[in-house]
Design brief:
Length: 219
């Protein structure tokens, strides 16, 4: 116990035997890097009128037709359960769209996962497009959503819509200079255990990727 933090070691079976849910939270099995950054003494900068106008200009580039077309096309890949032909077709569609937008750094990243409803082992794929920043290329903003779907549903809610947002951001930001690099990711195998996100985190830790913020469109 130290500074209002208490660490317990308990048998996993004990957690399921208690009548009342224990206020305990399992530690991740991933290596967690802890960094301390002293609080800044500088006043928080206010956005200028010009900056606000720039943001509005970018927002005006978002097209309703584009968002609807992405969602409807992903819905047409029936169910999109990881490891299936429809999932592979959706993967290829997303990668092709990133290329159509003009990105030359598009790749699919395979990893072992499981698929619902029986948690069957399968191979899943994240789809990634990279946009290099002009001032801080080694600092990354991650924009993503997962494209796999739950069995027996159209997969149009947090599945297709989250991916659609990442795709539309990639489209409108392609030719706009950004100070930091932006990584657009369509994650796979979310429904059966956040496999795609865990895969990305494992690689980010291994390469010491400097992620400033992650915009998660799933919810």
């Amino acid at each position: 116990e130290y500074d209002q933090l208490r660490l317990y070691r308990v048998e996993p079976d004990w957690m399921s035997l208690t009548e009342e849910p224990a206020q305990l939270f399992a530690l991740s099995d991933l290596p967690v890097k802890i960094r301390y950054r002293p609080p800044s003494t500088k006043p928080f900068p206010r956005l200028s009128t010009a900056a606000l106008e720039d943001i509005q200009t970018i927002m005006d580039l978002v097209e309703q037709d584009s968002l609807e077309s992405y969602v409807l096309r992903l819905e047409a890949f029936y169910r999109r359960v990881p490891g299936t032909d429809s999932s592979h077709a959706a993967r290829d569609y997303i990668a092709a769209k990133f290329v159509d937008f003009g990105y030359d750094s598009v790749y699919t990243d395979p990893f072992p996962a499981t698929a619902l409803p029986e948690y069957t082992p399968c191979e899943a794929y994240n789809v990634v497009a990279y946009k290099e920043g002009t001032v801080f290329p080694n600092r990354h903003i991650v924009v993503g959503g997962h494209y796999d779907a739950f069995p027996n549903c159209p997969g149009a809610d947090d599945n297709a819509t989250g991916t659609a947002l990442a795709m539309e951001c990639a489209r409108i930001l392609k030719d706009i200079d950004t100070r930091m690099s932006i990584v657009f990711v369509a994650f796979d195998a979310e429904e059966s255990g956040l496999w795609g996100a865990k895969r990305y985190v494992e690689q980010a830790l291994a390469t010491d990727e400097d992620i400033v913020v992650m915009v998660n469109a799933d919810m």
